[in-house]
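User: Structure tokens for this complex, please. No commentary.
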Amino acid sequence: ANTLRLYLTCIRNTLEAAMCLQNFPCQEVERHNKPEVELKTSSELLLNPVLICRNEAEKCLVETSINSIRISLKVKQADELENILAKKFLRFLSMRAEAFQVLRRKPVQGYDISFLITNYHCEDMHKHKLIDFIVQFMEDIDKEISELKLSVNTRGRLVATEFLKQFI
Amino acid sequence: MCGTGRSKPVEALKTALEGSPLKTRDERCKSANWIVVHRAMMAIRDIDGMFNSLDTEYYDILMKYLYRGLSTGDRPTCDQCLKIHEKLTERAGLGCILRSLADTVNTV
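Assistant:
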């Protein structure tokens, strides 16, 4: 539990420092405005990507650029069941990315879920609230998946008990 | 570098940080220095004491090494790096983190 607190504090501090975004129109094409972290065309617009690992299973990749920041998470998946639950749950969220605004429709290769925050989001919403949202999301994901796993096991046990009663 | 980890881990860390190859692009050089810094960091038990004797000019370099340690994914390394990261951010502030992110020229 202590490492979780340290891990989240580290991510929060890194995001607070990295979320310094400003509007930057595309340099190659006129009248276009693209999130530079997604395209990675000009190296002078990108900062060093930072990988924060809690252990072998959980990590968080923070890539920043001048007008956008991409945060990719890999959540803890202890066994096969948690693997499937996490995949289904996070796919459910990613498909509804429009509602979340800062969520990315597809996670970055090697991760479970990704956020893309642009300068427009920072202009519309408070920066500290965005960071609170991401950190809270990380805490809640673990709880949600544990709850889902518990309910799946309980249902499985009930179903099996009912089914096998006919053989007693 | 004999006697690096045994008697004075803080002194060892200072020496390792001083010798960090920021200007080169040679990966082997950087990896070699990283191994030494890693050993010194893992030997430190008293983090507050370490900061009391470490000069502020080393904070930026230490932050860069902390992020390198956090990217390894090895559990004891990450535990130690997370502990030091929290204390270092309290002392050095967010500017230290931003400098380690923004500095694409001098990397560790």
